[in-house]
Design a protein that fits this description.
Helix content: 40-55%
Number of strands: 10
Radius of gyration: 19 Å
CATH topology of the largest domain: Rossmann fold
Distance between the termini: 27 Å
Number of helices: 10
Strand content: 15-25%
Largest sheet: 6 strands, parallel
CATH architecture of the largest domain: 3-Layer(aba) Sandwich
CATH superfamily of the largest domain: NAD(P)-binding Rossmann-like Domain
Order of helices and strands: HHEHEHEHEEHEEEHHEHHE
Structural class: alpha/beta
Length: about 240
């Protein structure tokens, strides 16, 4: 189960598993379900940047949701074409337009708590219902699906009765996915990560700390806030 790094450094290999395999897992999941587009609610994260590169390489449509204008610029520089800023006054309109353009009715969310998944479902349903030729009290029949794969917000996940019944909300974790994917698929994913470890799957770190420095109050307070693009790399030999 080891991934031989060859000439790559330990730092290059430190993030060679969870984020790359998760991002690839999203794309594999989408393809197996016949989807041509994905929506991701934390587009500027380390994983989100990998997903942007993968979707661009594979010709998969991608809607990225971010919180800041600087994150919009970051993803544009990576080649992302559908980026929606949740802090913008016209967020909902822009989200509907991006979903309509890409047909992204299939998304992944690491936040978990709050109303963002609910907001995405509303936008998906509004896009789908606009194309209905006759009224239905049950909403559109187009299936909308979201997966929660993290709990950055430990609060309640809030859903409202405003998008009919054609939707599914599931949990998604890497290890159960790998158990069901099969050896051939896993081998192909691992090989792709190894061949593109410093490009498609490159990771950036805010700080590099020793084991002792990792336990300082300042460091713990910083990395526990789990801010986008601010990962810590622990270097035990430092």
């Amino acid at each position: 189960m080891c991934l031989p790094l060859g000439d790559y450094s330990a730092e290059d290999g430190a993030s060679a598993f969870v984020n790359p395999m998760t991002a690839l897992g999203f794309v594999e999941n989408a393809k197996s379900d016949g989807q041509d587009a994905i929506l991701h609610t934390v587009g500027a994260s380390n994983l989100g940047q990998m997903l942007t590169r993968i979707c661009k390489e594979d010709g998969i449509g991608l809607v990225n949701i971010v919180r800041k204008e600087a994150q919009v610029d970051l993803l544009k520089n990576l080649g992302s074409t559908h980026i929606v800023n949740s802090s913008h006054d016209a967020f909902m309109q822009h989200l509907r337009e991006a979903i309509a353009d890409t047909k992204a009715f299939y998304g992944f969310d690491p936040i978990g708590g709050g109303k963002l998944v609910d907001t995405v479902f509303k936008a998906m349903e509004q896009v789908a219902s606009a194309k209905m030729t006759e009224y239905s009290r049950y909403g559109s029949s187009l299936q909308k699906r979201m997966f929660i794969y993290g709990r950055l917000d430990m609060g309640l996940t809030t859903l409202s009765p405003s998008y009919g019944f054609g939707w599914t909300l599931s949990g998604w974790l890497l290890f159960p996915f790998l158990q069901s994917a099969g050896r051939e698929t896993i081998g192909r994913m691992r090989q792709r990560v190894l061949e593109n470890l410093t490009t498609t799957f490159a990771s950036n770190y805010k700080e590099r700390v020793s084991l002792e420095e990792m336990l300082t109050k300042q460091a713990v307070t910083d990395y526990r806030s789990m801010k986008t693009g601010e990962k810590y790399l622990v270097m035990p030999w430092k």
